[in-house]
Every structure is written in C-alpha cells, then in structure tokens.
TrEMBL record:
NCBIfam families assigned: MFS_SpdSyn
Keyword terms: Polyamine biosynthesis
Name recorded for this polypeptide: Spermidine synthase-like protein
Origin species: Streptomyces lavendofoliae
GO biological process terms on file: polyamine biosynthetic process
Metal-binding keyword on record: no
Length: 285
C-alpha cells in the first residue's frame, strides 16, 4: 500500500541574521537539517529527539551527561537555539527538566516553531533575546547547566568571549554547576587558547573535547569547552568521546595548561569574534 503522506519539501526563508533553510533528510522520516547562509546549524529528528547527527552536538551532550546522574532532571540554560536539538534530547532523556533557550534571531524562532514545533509539556521555554543580555538579567544560582552554542554565521560573537561574559555565566550557575560551549578554531589556536585562559580565570576546573586532528592543528574544527567550579568527570567524558564514530580526545589538567600556554583572559574592549572558517569547512554547498 502506498504511503499517502506527501514528500516533505525544503523550506527557505529570510530570518533576522541571514537565510534559513530547512531540508528534509531522505533517509529518516520527519528529520530535518537547518542551515543559515549555507552553514549547518542543527539537525532534528522529530520522531527520535535523542538522535544527535552532528559530532559536536554529541560532545555537548556528553558534557551534560557527565555533569549529573543519568536521568536526573536539570535546570538548563541554552544560549543559542537553532532547531532546539539538545533541548529536545534532554526533554526525553531527563524528563521533568526545566529548560530556557535564548535565541537572538526571532525570525528563526518563528520558523522553527512553525515547522518543527515542540511537543506539549516539553518543559522548554524559548526567549527571543541576546544571549549575554538575558544571562546578565537571569536570577543568580538558578541553573545547573549553561550550554553556549551561539554562532553568527560561522563565528562566535565577540561579546560572548570575554571575562565579563564568563563571570555572568558563572553567576547563573549553582555551586558545582557546569558551563559547556561549542567553539571553533584552527592552528595556531589564538582564539581557543584565549577562551581557555578566560574561563580558567573564573572556573576552577576545565576540560576540552576535540578530535586529535583538530588539536594537532591539521584542520579547522569544533572544540567543546567544559568549565565548572566542581570536579569534572574527565574519565567518563573521555570514554564517551572516544566511543563516538569520530573519536575525540579530552584534554585537562597539565596537558590543557600546556595547550593554553601564555594566553591571557579576554577583556570586553579587546574581544573579537572567533576566526572565519576556511572556505568549505562547514558549508554544504
């Protein structure tokens, strides 16, 4: 018997910060890829919200999973929304969690709400606001986790890289809370090292998750920063990262201090966006 459902069609729309495109995955029913100006932003499977297609998203999830016992509900702030991939996953893997998603692009918020709506009772609240401004106004000690995945195109905005921003994130976290950020850089890693120095000035414990080829400077790529006032379960984090389809390494302690070198914390007046990726790094054509 033929399936009466029509084939899903791509959706193209101008949003506040570029041109958004939703493309259906021909291999998975009700799964969608979101791009902004050709750069992949999110992948969502509405039938399987726990599925994470992108490796960096898996690493963000590993960091969250290592921050609290499995299944335990959490209060989570997500800076950067996209198609709400990680919030959707946490809503099903940690039922009862309260999640605030902060996305500056209100046009994108509307697009996702229209075409990829959240299920009732998800516990996810979406705010159309600037990430740092929202963070600075949020109640102190109100979150267990802050996840930052904010890109203007393919670059982390400058105002989300400074010492003042790191302090704002720390203020919102409860004692023992964890900050997790998706960053991108390549050799000689001036940006990534500056971020490590900045967050080391605020948090007692740091870890970095990245593929060995990225850490060796062989290519530009994503790196996930994990920062906490409490201990980070780096052993478990390393096991999870190594078991992925594209294995990653976890740097911490002395090796991470050596990687950071003599980098200095970033002040607001000196902050710059993350570097522009080489052509074709994240684009899909």
């Amino acid at each position: 018997m033929n399936d009466p459902r029509p084939e899903p069609l791509p959706v193209l729309r101008a949003v506040d910060h570029g041109t958004a495109k939703l493309m259906p995955d021909v291999d998975r029913d009700r799964a969608w890829l979101l791009t902004i100006d050709g750069a992949p932003q999110s992948y969502v499977d509405l039938d399987d919200p726990a599925h994470l297609e992108f490796e960096y998203a898996r690493r963000l999830a590993h960091a969250v999973d290592c921050a609290a016992p499995g299944g335990e509900p959490l209060d989570v702030v997500h800076l950067g929304g996209g198609a709400l991939t990680l919030p959707r996953r946490l809503a099903v893997t940690r039922s009862g969690s309260r999640q605030d998603v902060v996305e500056a692009d209100r046009g994108l918020v509307a697009l996702v709400a229209e075409h990829l709506p959240l299920p009732p009772g998800s516990g996810i609240t979406v705010h159309g606001a600037d990430a740092r401004a929202w963070l600075e106004a949020a109640p102190a000690r109100s979150a267990d986790i802050v996840v930052a995945d904010v890109f203007g195109g393919s670059r982390v905005p400058a105002h989300l890289t400074s010492l003042a921003y790191a302090r704002a994130a720390e203020r919102v976290l409860r004692p023992g809370g964890t900050y997790v950020a998706n960053l991108a850089d390549g050799a000689p890693f001036a940006f990534l090292r500056s971020q490590l120095a900045t967050f080391a000035a605020v948090f007692a414990h740091l870890a970095l998750i990245a593929e060995p080829a990225v850490l060796r400077g062989r290519r530009f790529g994503n790196a996930v920063l994990v920062a906490s006032r409490g201990e980070i379960d780096t052993a478990r984090l390393a096991r999870l990262a190594a078991a992925d389809a594209f294995p990653a390494r976890v740097e911490h302690g002395e090796s991470l201090a050596r990687f950071t070198g003599d980098a200095r914390p970033v002040r607001d007046e000196d902050a710059v966006p993350s570097p522009e990726p080489p052509g074709g790094t994240f684009g899909i054509g």
